[in-house]
Amino acid sequence: MQEVLKGPFSQNDSRLLQYIITNNIIRPPSDKPYNLSNPDIDNPSMGQSRLVLHALNGLKNGFFVECGALDGELRSNTLLLEKRYGWKVKLNVYIMLMLNSD
Q: Which residues constitute the signal peptide according to the record (predicted)?
């Protein structure tokens, strides 16, 4: 596995996937309620999420690719999609690891 981690490697390398699964690097989604600093703010984006919903006719249960989550709340373009429309995240693993650190 050390040779895979030294890179370069293909994102489809089965050894990498096995390492991620075996070492619990990506945990399953939490079933706990959101832990937000400002839970009363329905849409912290600057209008982007409403534009997406308008363009996709209010699509429910969609997915998005997270590329820059910051803290997961401040100016989030996707929090509304998750909370009210049931969207799921396909995320940036490096940001996720930072957000999950205790």
A: none
